[in-house]
Structure formats: structure tokens, C-alpha cells
Write a structure and sequence with these properties.
Length: 76
């Protein structure tokens, strides 16, 4: 039997804040929210993967210093 999924969805503003808390630089918050609304967090996460910090064979849940949503991580 599956456990119920109790995690509530994040608003686009909360998603932006979540990414910023992981070290991703986002200068144009309104634009980033629009990109997240159009494409979705998890769909975009494939583009973010190369910019995450690695420790040995592990990929951490943090972004490399200097990584920018506008320059490195969004579909344009």
C-alpha cells in the first residue's frame, strides 16, 4: 500500500526562493516565475543539473558559485 503524499505544492514565488536558497542567482524574479509557470520546475531541473556542486561521485543539492538562472539554467 502506498503512503499518502502530503507535501504541498510550492507557488512560483516559493520555487524561486527555494532555488535561491540552494545558491542559484536569480536577478529577475518575475521573469523566473514566468519561466517556471510555462515549463515547470522539474522539467527545467535537467538544465540545472550540470551546474550543481559535485563531491566525489555525489551530486549535491547546491549550485556552483556564480550560477545564474538567466544565463545558465533557463530555456530561452
Amino acid at each position: 500500500m502506498l503512503k499518502p503524499y502530503n507535501k504541498k505544492p510550492l507557488s512560483y514565488a516559493e520555487q524561486v526562493h527555494h532555488l535561491q536558497s540552494k545558491g542559484l542567482s536569480i536577478h529577475n524574479v518575475a521573469w523566473a516565475e514566468g519561466i517556471l509557470a510555462k515549463y515547470g520546475y522539474y522539467r527545467l531541473s535537467a538544465y540545472w543539473y550540470p551546474y550543481r556542486i559535485r563531491s566525489g561521485n555525489n551530486v549535491l543539492d547546491r549550485f556552483k558559485p556564480g550560477t545564474s538562472f538567466e544565463k545558465n539554467c533557463a530555456i530561452i
